[in-house]
Amino acid sequence: MNEFSLLIDGKAHAGRGAFGVINPATGQVFAQCPRADAALLDAAVAAAKAAFPSWARTPAAERARLVHALADALESRSDEFARLLTAEQGKPLGQAYYEMMASVGTLRTFADMTIEPRILRDDANGTVIEHRTPLGVVAAITPWNFPVILLMNKVGPALVAGNTMVVKPAPTTPLTTLLFGELCRDILPAGVINIICDENDLGGLLTSHPDIAKVAFTGSTATGRKVMQSAATGIKRVTLELGGNDAAIVLDDVDVQEVAGKVFHGAMLNAGQICVAVKRAYVPAALYDPFCDELARLAEAMVVDEGTRQGAEIGPVQNRAQYEKVKEFLADASANGKVIAGGEALDRPGYFIAPTIVRDLPRDARIVQEEQFGPVLPVLAYDDLDSLIDEVNASDYGLAGTVWGQDRQRALAVAMQIDSGTVWVNQHMAIDPSIPFRGSKQSGLGGELGEAGLHEYTQAHIVNMAA
Ligand code: NAD
What we know:
The chain is α/β, with parallel strands linked by helices. Helices cover 39% and strands 22% of the residues. It is built from 15 helices and 24 strands. A seven-stranded mixed sheet has the order 14-15-16-13-12-18-19, with helices on both faces. Strands 9-8-7-10-11-22 form a six-stranded mixed sheet, sandwiched between helices. It has a three-stranded antiparallel sheet with strand order 5-6-24, with no helix packed on it. It has two domains: 6-242 and 443-466, Aldehyde Dehydrogenase, Chain A, domain 1 (3-Layer(aba) Sandwich), CATH 3.40.605.10; 247-432, 3-Layer(aba) Sandwich (Aldehyde Dehydrogenase, Chain A, domain 2). It has helices at residues 38-57, 60-76, 78-89, 93-111, 149-160, 175-187, 203-208, 221-232, 256-268, 288-301, 320-336, 366-369, 385-393, 408-415, 450-455; strands at residues 6-8, 11-13, 18-23, 28-34, 118-123, 126-134, 137-141, 164-168, 193-195, 214-218, 237-241, 247-250, 280-284, 338-341, 356-359, 376-382, 397-398, 402-404, 424-425, 437-438, 440-441, 444-445, 447-448, 458-466. The protein binds nicotinamide-adenine-dinucleotide. Nicotinamide-adenine-dinucleotide is lined by residues 141-145, 150, 168-171, 200, 203-204, 207, 218-220, 223, 226-227, 241-244, 275, 371, 373, 399, 439, 444.
């Protein structure tokens, strides 16, 4: 196994001590991760600050060339990255490859974007030009469910716009980020990207650091709140991509088998650990029984195994804390509803949970109201579509959601009423780096991806010249 290093000012750094990284499929430590301390954090921020003026002045075309070079390097080592991703995150290898290729695509999409100045006025009164300037040092903080793609969503726009970065991955999935650091070390000028790792103890220091201009954060709503508070002192820019409790609304004209399959996979992919996974499904009362039965059949048929095993469809939950949390949800599910598939942890090493379908729950059950972030789907019946829309919108979250129906106009009309950043109709997780993605309500602030996502790493600068 590779020796991993932090990246500070273009140099590999052994850190101040190390901590073990656990393979969630075995529950055993398989690698050591170097850890930073407050002094190394300061050094990383200082390096990013020192690198900023020259990187910001580097012609945009040259910055784009280097981001393309990162994408090419990532692609050429995607096999190694995917294996490491499966080892630290747990997802099946095929899904790890998919994350790698999507990451490459995201970098390329941003590298191909340009930020043109806009002439807001050019007449007898004068000339007004709006152009966009980089912000400075961006702190990028990522979670453990998609450690690579969620980092590239930040690296692509931040670098293309001319910012420098300090990156901090989640402590349970730091290794693919450190491996990416090796590519950065070879390709980028020193200090443009710096990577530090912690054991959940340096986030606050990073977000409150006076030399950080912006915090790009993906993680839970609870931590997002802390990030916002800590950024307040310096009026730092923040982008928060937070939690969700996305609903799948099934309309009464669907083909049950087909749509149950799509809803099921939308709930179970990545062992349900996706911000935009289906976290509650609503089905018309008339279709409720056959729909639940089909979901249960699919859950029972799912191959749950180590991500490296041929044929594995669903891997373990990523870490012990989340595993314990999902088990609490399972206890709540069996106490308050009817578990028709799964319902328990598997009796084997690692953090495996059987894909679980629960029906006949009260509307206010914890498993319906909260984000489970595991392979567990509550299914509820409804009679009246208008009151269902109100019920779905009553959540504090508003990340995404899906609507399923053969009558496209009716499905569209329902989608238009859902209070969330994205609603997919008759498809799920059609995430595209050129399309903006953002949460409403407590699911986020600002957004990533698309041109709007690039603009989040800039500020508008107005030059107003007399005629
Ligand atoms: P988390 O909030 O526990 O941790 C996320 C990151 O924040 C980690 O790197 C962690 O070390 C760091 N952190 C911890 N304390 C901090 C602090 N005080 N200040 C700054 N950073 C701190 O989230 P998680 O459990 O790793 O991830 C799961 C959550 O992420 C879920 O709620 C999920 O919905 C959400 N998520 C959202 C999106 C999105 O795009 N909206 C995408 C993926 C995941």
